[in-house]
Structure formats: structure tokens, C-alpha cells
Amino acid sequence: MAGMTDEQLGEVYAFAVQLGKDAGNMLMDAAKARLGDAGQSGQAFTEKDSAVDIVTKTDEDVEAFIHRSISLKYPDHKFIGEETYSKGDSRDYLIGETDPTWCVDPLDGTVNYTHLFPMFCVSIAFILGGRPVIGVIYAPFLNQLFTSCRGRGAWLNDNQRLPLIRYPVPPIPEEAPSGCIFACEWGKDRQDRPDGNMYRKVESFVNMAAEIGGRQGKGGMVHGMRSLGSATLDLAYTAMGSFDIWWEGGCWEWDVAAGIAILQEAGGLVTSANPPEDPSTAEIQDVRLGSRLYLAIRPAGPSSTETGRQGQERLVREVWRRVRELDYRRPGA
Ligand code: IPD
Question: Hydrolase as a keyword (predicted)?
């Protein structure tokens, strides 16, 4: 591993896992306080605090805790967190190729957290050479801890290796996207413009859902459509193999960095959400972390006619044939 021995990376991994557990417990304590368990968590809120105020405060407190812990342990490492980035002026992509960097979302699935829908988590990635090599996602309400370190596998709750179905890892179905679960997100861009991102997404969702052969041959008739409301959990569920496809535009690097680390370590593929000019021949490249456009495919085993990777690439092309191009340039770019 460039700039770090395997042993050093192992130490960073152990630190990141403990940090994820501690931060997730902070999220859950604040949630319990809202449930009326203030005595248990020791954290009380006043009547005038709105759910959104509480969530914002929790988000900021958890990020400050994570940032402080990392700075104490690794003062030379760079830190990019959702809250600190959002408050700054720059919308530039800040993850470089050289500095070891932490990329953190203290609370992914913020809307879920506000409504106490259990799909929320803390998401911590460690990046070396511009690529996420460690991922830790802890969803405390679900008691699900996803972890990975390059070369050491991807895990659920420390003891269940990902993907879940391993003996054997299923190939991509021959008729895919038929037979697949397609995960997607409505996202935050809700502009009511006929050719805006929301309408392009909805048209793409309908193409994936429609009966085979419908919509001028674009009907994919997937087995099911799902939206968790947390990009990083979407990726973790794709790493589990529970989702076959995840397609989304608009997320930032902290929404996906840990999920990408976990999915890639489990054997999944992540490329761009936007279809190239010719989906059937274009080269399939690994996604750029800051691109804001993501198409993820679950880990796949070989069939009698193709390798796992060939099956994944076939599915990428099938998705590209059915989805619209999205416009999520970085503001100012
Ligand atoms: C959001 C979630 C959501 C995705 C949005 C993200 P947040 O992150 O990951 O699933 O669709 O684009 O911003 O705000 O809950 O940290």
C-alpha cells in the first residue's frame, strides 16, 4: 500500500472501526433522548428545539467528535467532513492523490433520522492515493456494522463476510435487469423543471420498472425497486448482494466513500451513472469519487458462459440503455 505498511493500515482500520462504533452510539443516544429516554442518554432537549435543530446539532457534534479523534491520533492526515465542507466557500473536489485523507459523513440518511426511520448511519472512509481503502458504516438503530479494508475483505458485524450469499456467489441473471433489485434515490434536487434531474430520474426509474419490451424496448421489468434514503447504506446493501443495482446522481464524496470502499472490497463494481454515447461498446471505468454520478453493481460469480466481471459489465450496459443523463456538475464548475 503506497505510503503505508500493511501493519500501519491495519492499525488505521482498527481505529476507524472503533470510531464508527462510538460515533454511531452518539447518534443513537441523541435519538433516544428524543424518544424520551433522556435519563438513559444523559442528553435532554428543550421544548423549543425542533427535530431539525436537534438533528443539525447532533450532526455537528458527531462530526466534531470524529474530527477531534482523528486529529489527535493522526495529526498529519487530511479531514473532509460533510458539515465542515458545507460551511466553507469552496465546492472544489478536495481529495488529492497524495495525502492520506479521511472522508466522513457523521449522519447519512438525515431525513430518515429526523423521522426516526431506522436507515441512518455514520459513514467513515480512509483514502490513500485518491481511492477509498477503508470503509466503516454503522447503523445503530439496525445494529448493522459494515467494515472493509483493502485486502482484508468486507464484513457485516465483524463475522459475516460480504456478499452474504457466497457458496457460490450468484452470477448476474441471464435476462438482467429482469430478476434484479434496482435501488435508486429521489435525492434533494426537486426542481419542477420538465427536463430537470428529478424528471430525468423518474423517467429512468419507470424504464427500469416497466414491463419487458414496453417503452420502445426500454422496459427492464426489474424484480423490485427500493430507496433507502441513505446513499452509503444503498452501497452497503449492494455489497451484501441484497441489491443488484444502485443508480444515483447528486451525492457528494462523503455520502459514498465508505460505501464504495466496502462494495469494491466485496467484489462489486462502481462506475458512472451517466450513459456514454454508445453503451454497448464504451469502456467501463471505475467511478471518480467526486463525480456525483454513481452506478453500482453487486459482487457476481461466474456462470457457464461468462466471468463475474463480464456479467457485471453486461448489466452496466443494460442499465445505461435505460437511464437518462443527469446533470450534477459541481457548483461553479
Ligand atoms: C443524502 C442521502 C440520500 C441521497 C442524497 C444525500 P444526507 O445524504 O445519502 O440518500 O439521495 O443525495 O445528500 O444529507 O442524509 O447526509
Answer: yes
Q: Which atom of ligand 1 lies nearest, measured to the CA of 251?
A: 12
- Report the DSSP beta bridge partners of residue 138: 122, 145
Ligand 1 atom closest to the Cα of residue 185 is 11
C-alpha cell of 46? 428543550
What are the pLDDT digits (tens) for 152-185? 999 999 999 999 999 999 999 999 999 999 999 9
User: How many residues appear in the chain?
Assistant: 333
Number of Cβ within a 10 Å radius of residue 175: 12
Q: Per the annotation, does 105 bind a ligand?
A: yes
How far, in Å, CA of 240 to CA of 219, rounded? 26
Quick one: average pLDDT of 92-117?
92
| Ligand 1 neighbourhood includes 123 CB (under 6 angstroms) | no
Q: DSSP string spanning 73-130?
A: H-TTSEEEEHHHHHHSS--S----SSS-EEEEEEEE-HHHHHTT-S--EEEEEEEETT
Tell whether 158 is in a known binding site: no
Determine whether the annotation assigns residue 283 to a binding site.
no
CA–CA separation, 170 vs 190, rounded Å? 37
Cβ of residue 81 lying under 6 Å from some atom of ligand 1:
no
Q: Please, which residues have CB within 8 angstroms of residue 252's CB and are 6 or more apart in sequence?
A: 82, 85, 290, 292
For residue 298, what are the β-bridge partners?
A: none
Q: Which residues contact 71 (CB under 8 A, 6 or more apart)?
A: 79
Q: How far apart are the CA of 305 and the centre of ligand 1, in A?
A: 38
Give the distance (Å) from ligand 1 centre to CA of residue 172. 28
Q: What percent of the chain has pLDDT over 90?
A: 83
The mean pLDDT of 244-268, rounded to a whole number, is 97
Q: Is the CB of residue 110 below 6 angstroms from any atom belonging to ligand 1?
A: yes
Question: In terms of C-beta density within 10 A (0-12 exposed, 13-18 middle, 19 or more buried), how is residue 60 classed?
Answer: middle
The residue nearest atom 14 of ligand 1, judged by CA position, is: 110
